[in-house]
Structure formats: structure tokens, C-alpha cells
Write the C-alpha cells for this entry.
Amino acid sequence: MSSFSISLSRPHPSHFGIIVAMLMVLGTINRSDAGDRCCVHCGCQQQVTKVCRIVKVDKKITVTCWGAQDEEFLIGDPSTPGQEHCETVCTKDREDKLDDKVCSEPKALKWTSWIPGKCATVFTKTKLMKKTVTKTIPSYKWVIEDVCAQCKAAPPAKDAPVTNSDGSSKKQNEKL
């Protein structure tokens, strides 16, 4: 059998700031519902009610387009080794006069000169290409507004769509 107990203790001093902040937020919320709201259209404070209105907004749509691009490149015939060379480097009698403080031994530098092939062949490779297009289109969304009786009776905005009796929609400023 397990035992369960609750211990009520004093809140930690660092929690007092959080509690005060929560009480301030709750006080602000209660005050906004107390009736001192004003109309968002004309600013008056007479008998304000909440209504749903449609608002035109710009919406950004991003589309990714994929394509291909051809690119040419060359591959030459194999080269063949030519003459071998040997040169002594790091000597004191060089033309650029090494610093007297640097001590080094002469060193042999060996390399082979290569003879390129007689021709090259052209090849084509296809590269995948990506293009991103962002388009801004008109859209509509519903919002809740606090309005007075006079603004509530006003016609909707000119850009707001109006639904006709047959279900089709047109803008308010277009003729039916």
C-alpha cells in the first residue's frame, strides 16, 4: 500500500514575480471586457458589438520549378611521359639571395614533363536546375471586429467578394 501526502509550503521568492505578472495579465483581460471597447471603424463607444467581416489580404505562394541544363566538357586522350628533369634548389648562390639566417641544404627537385594527347572528345552532361518563384496573390479571411450599430449597417469594403444568389461571386464594385 502506498501513501500519498500533500505538503503546502510558502512559494519560493523567485515565483512572486511570475505570480504578479499573471495577475496583471488577468486584470487587463477583465478590464477589456468591461464595456470600454470602441468601434474599430469610427472610434465611437456606443453599443459596440462583435461582428464577422471579410478582409482582403495578400498571400504569398512559393512554387519550386525543376528543369535541366546541358553543359559541355572535354576529355582529352591520354598523355604520355616526356623528358625527366632534375634541378638543384635551396642553394646559397640563387638569384633571390636567401637570407643569411636561414640554413638549408641544397635539395634536388625532380619532375617529368608530359606530352598531351593528340585530340579531345566533347561530352555533354545534364545538370538538374532548381528555380523558386514567389507570387503574391489576393486572398480573403474572416476577422472579428468590434463595431457600432451605424458601422454595422454600412456596406462591405469595395474589394470584398459578394456571393450572388446563384453561388457565383463578384467584387462589390463590379456590375452584376
